[in-house]
Amino acid sequence: MNARKVSSASQLAWQLGLLLTLMVLAGAVVGSEGWAVSAFQADAALIADIRLPRTLGACLAGALLGLAGALAQGLFRNPLADPYLLGSASGASLGVAVGMVMLSQLDVSPWFVRVGITGMAFMGAWLAVALSLLLSWGVQHTLRLLLAGVVVGVVLGAIASLLLVMYPQIQGSVQSFMLGSTAYVSWPACGLMLGVLIVSGLVSYAASPLLDGLALGESTALSLGLPVKSLRWVLLAVLALCTAAAVAQTGLIAFVGLAAPHLVRARYKGVHGKTLSLSCLMGAVLLGGADLLARGLMAPLELPVGVLTAILGGGYMLYLMRGMSPKSTSGRGGRA
Length: 336
Fold this sequence. Notes:
Elements: H1 2-27, E1 30-31, E2 34-35, H2 44-76, H3 88-104, H4 110-135, H5 142-166, H6 171-179, H7 187-215, H8 218-223, H9 228-250, H10 256-267, H11 272-296, H12 305-322, H13 326-335
Antiparallel strand pairs: 1-2
C-alpha cells in the first residue's frame, strides 16, 4: 500500500511540476496586450525585468499560501482552515493603511514607498498573529485560538476601515492591496519569498510527524511521545511567516491557501510530509495560473488576481458542497 501511495504522490508531483514549468514559460509571452508570442525575442528586457519576476513571484506566493493552508488545516484539524485564520489578513491591511498614511506625509521615492508598504504589511500580519496567541494564552486550546483569531481580525479590520474614512486619499492604494496583485513583484521580492519558502518547507517537513499524530487525536500524539506544545509553536510561527511573506508582496489572495490542500487530498491521501510539499506545488500552480488569466483573459484590461482566485475558488468550494448531500453523509455514517 505504501508503494502505491508513494507512486501516486510522485506522479502528482511530476504533473504539477510540468504544469508549473509550462506556466513559467507562458508567463514570458503574456503581457499587457495579451498573448504576444511574436514579440518574444524583441522584448527581452521586458521579459527579464517584469514578466519573469512577476510569474515566478506569483508561483512563489502561491507555494507559500499552499504550505500555510496545509499547515493550518493540519494544526486545527479543520478542512476549512486557511492561512488568514489568525487575523493576518486584517493585520496586513492595517499595516498597509498605516504605512500609506505615514508615507503620504513624506516626499520619498516610489521605491522607498514600495519597500515601506511591504514592511508594514509584514509587520501587521505578524502583529495580528501575536495578538491572537496572546489573547488565547498560548497554543494549547485550539478553539480559543480560533476565536481569538476571529476577534483580532474583526478589530484590526475595523481600525483599517476607520483609517480609510479619516484619510480618503489612501483608499485607492489600500483597495488595490486588498484585491491582490502580482504586478509589482520584483526579483528581490522573489528572492525573499524563495528564502522563506526553503526555510519554512524544511522546518515544516521536520515537524510534520506532529500533524500525523494530531490527525489521530491530541491524546494519541501525546502518547506517541511527540512534543505537542513546542512543535505547535514552531508550526504556528512557520504559518505566520509564510502568510506574512506572501501577503506583503502580493496583497490578499483569496482561496489559494484553502483550495490547494483540498485539491491535493483529492488525489493523494498520505502522510503530511508529502502533503505539505504537494500543497506547495498546487498553490504555485493555482496562483501562477490565476496570474496568467488575470493578464491575458481581458487584455489590455488586467483583472485583480485576488478577485479571480475568489471567483474560481468559490466555484470550486460550491462544487465540493454539492457533493456533500445529507443522503451521502448519512450513508457513510451508516457504513461506519
